[in-house]
Write a structure and sequence with these properties.
The chain is of the alpha+beta class. It has helices at residues 2-48, 54-59, 85-89; strands at 62-64, 71-73, 76-84, 100-105, 111-121, 123-126, 146-150, 161-165, 173-179. The protein has three helices and nine strands; from the N terminus they run ααβββαββββββ. Strands 1, 2, 3, 4, 5, 8 and 9 form a seven-stranded antiparallel beta sheet that branches. The protein is globular, with a radius of gyration of 23 Å.
């Protein structure tokens, strides 16, 4: 009886040790992942700090999107978007070179940088062999014969949203990622909207 009890105790102890090792390893991996993401976010802040002055953003090739409207909805503020045409036209994304900058009005005629965005167009091929490579713009849903060959990316250990269309039926498909590096967001660092901010120029 004592031998069986000792064996059972040994088994339980072994299981507990194994669980402890597993949980510890997972915690270490998670901490290391968070450290890497924090380092990447720091690199983005260092690369985009100059764009707090919107005039420098304009000098670097950014343009205000559309009519310059500040965008917000029930999920919160997205902001006033500025885009860099050269960065958008190239395939792929570069950590220190976001394609988009997002600002909010400050109420004194100025704007404040709150977020950056990454944008990558989706490249498809026509598997029927008719068109070797296209950026379809007016297909929603996409025909089954179109095969995605480029577009998705991963930054900050985070997958992007997409594939999406900026304006359904009028523009290319893309993958995008919002990153609130210059303003806290209760919905999360990578959420599309920020409920803490608004377009009423009192930010």
């Amino acid at each position: 009886m004592n031998r069986k009890l000792n064996n059972l105790t040994s088994i339980i102890a072994s299981v507990m040790i194994a669980l402890f090792i597993l949980v510890t390893a997972q915690s270490v991996a998670k901490a290391q992942g968070n450290s890497e993401v924090n380092r990447e976010l720091a690199r983005v802040r260092a690369a985009t700090a100059k764009y707090h002055d919107v005039n420098i953003a304009l000098e670097d090739g950014f343009e205000i999107s559309g009519n310059g409207a500040c965008v917000e909805d029930a999920d919160g503020l997205e902001g006033i978007a500025y885009f860099n045409r050269a960065r958008i036209l190239q395939q792929g994304v570069i950590l220190e070179e976001p394609e988009l900058l997002f600002y909010v009005p400050t109420g004194d005629g100025n704007v404040r940088l709150v977020a950056v965005g990454y944008f990558n167009r989706v490249l498809y091929i026509d598997t029927r062999g008719f068109i070797p490579g296209i950026f379809p713009s007016r297909s929603n849903p996409l025909p089954s014969y179109l095969q995605e060959v480029s577009g998705p990316f991963t930054l900050f250990n985070q997958p992007p949203d997409g594939p999406l269309q900026v304006v359904p039926g009028e523009t290319v498909w893309f993958y995008g990622l919002h990153v609130w590096v210059w303003s806290s967001n209760p919905s999360g660092m990578f959420a599309l909207g920020n409920p803490r901010l608004n377009c009423s120029a009192n930010n």
